[in-house]
Specification:
Blueprint lengths: L2 E9 L3 H12 L4 E4 L8 H4 L6 E5 L9 H6 L6 E3 H14 L6 E2 L4 E7 L4 E6 L4 E9 L21 E4 L13 E5 L3 H10 L5 E6 L5 E3 L7 H20 L19 H14 L2 H6 L9 H18 L3 H7 L10 E3 L11 E5 L5 E4 L3 E4 L4 E3 L2 E4 L8 H4 L2 E3 L6 H4 L19 E3 L5 E2 L3 H34 L6 H7 L8 H15 L25 E2 L3 H13 L9
Parallel strand pairs: 1-2, 1-8, 2-5, 6-19, 8-20, 9-18, 10-11, 10-18, 11-14, 12-13, 21-22
Antiparallel strand pairs: 3-4, 6-7, 7-8, 15-16, 16-17
Helix pairs in contact: 1-13, 13-16
Amino acid sequence: MPVVSIDALVVGTGFGGIYQLKKLRDQGLNVIAIDAASDVGGTWYWNRYPGAMSDTETYLYRYSWDLEDLRSYPWSTRYVYQPEILAYLQHVTNKYDLRRHMQFDTELTSAEWNDSAKRWIVTTSTGTIFKTRYLVSALGLLSRQNLPDYEGIKDFVGDMYHTGNWPGGVDIKGKRVGVIGNGSTGVQVITAIAKDVSKLVSFQRNPQYSVPSGQGPVTEAYRKAIIEKYPKIWEDAKDNSLFGFGFKETDRQTFSVSEEEREEIYEQAWQKGGGFRFMFETFGDISVDEAANNAATNFIKRKIFATVKDPEKARKLIPTQLYARRPICDAGYYEQFNLDHVEVVSLQETPIVQFTSKGIVTSDGAEHELDVVVFATGFDAVDGNYTRIAIKGRDGETLKDHWQHQGSTSYLGLSVPDFPNMFMILGPNGPFCNLPPAIETQVEFISNIIEEAERRAKKATPAALVSSAHTNRTRSEVECSNEPVIEATKAAEDEWTDVCDKLSADSLFRKTDSWIFGSNISGKKHAVLFYFAGISAYRKVLNDVVQGNYKGFRPF
């Protein structure tokens, strides 16, 4: 098997992996990025389902560090669809000549830290073994698919697709389609395909609150205004906001205004569009106060009843839980249920009993005959890809072992004790916000700490080599002993875990079953998976870590 020695290995070539590869290459390191896919894109390579769209406005769903590219690269709609996102990431990869440092169709199968060599030994699906000083995982938040195992599922003779691995060339026009799941993905799929299929059955366990996205073409004047303000837009998104979605979150309290004014504020946000905007630009207590949450949900429920003409369909689409999941938006979701051939099945009232060769049977005895079943059932989010792979740190401990008792923990969402020189982009307990600014923030921190460690090691090596002349140690042994080892302390991990726990303690998000706390996976330990203080606070924390001589990390 070929063995390749390099300075750094990046796993994944989505938003995070592309930028991390560029940063480390530009620092003069010999770096390779690998990906199980056949091209760049990460999430946007695999999620090619109809209607796949970012819920971040287009002008902020890209990299901020190339101002010329921000101003010149074309985009024409308020939100960007999957094909355009994939094309954009391919464009960046080609523009910066990164492809020659990438190896596709190459999956990481195991990684083990060798303490004496101060190297990660990484095996891959192609047989190539990498010996690398630094291992950076850019596997993504939402990449390990959650596929339910229903009784009789193998008996179904139709087609089955998970939205997270949508094959090319699928044609569902004129077919009878069942969609299981109604989170952001399910909402997008239903909105996109309803008009083209002969029958659509939406199987919903927990109806969700969705608000309009405001999707549509942008004017030349709109684009010109964005271009002129780009530096300020990104400064505000990164350093002056909670979530980095391009608006200023409010601290206004729901009941500080009259009911009439409150309705007007909700309506303005509804017309403007955007899930995060509706939840956090209207009032600042929707996610922490149940009464405020109920006021917002009552408004959305009235909108559902006003939109969906069939009262029984509308009843089934009314959410019963708190408005406390990742806020979602749509481009005409509720309107699809006014089509006669679009049905909704409440899995709370009539759960799925089994699959048959013809379709799906629910507990009321109804057999829903289908040609295609779409699983919009989400992902084993944040840590799922780490626990399925044998990643072994010091003394052979795996990440799965490390997280067995407390749930997924880290220091800063970036580093784990006893896993030296390993970094995670969007690891557990990273910031809950728009992903591109979070990714950039973490990639830049990782790159800077590696650069500083390399600088210190080079500074220390000459003296060590001189002293080696008077000992029996070889040059390679001395060089190895002086190579940098970057590792978070257990105390720092515990403190950060506690911070994240306390930040989420009062959040209504914690009282609602969702992937944000791992509760969408049967048997998975519920845990805090995000830092809820926002992107600007997170960036300040990282700056304080640097200013404190990388406090929380062992001396390197």
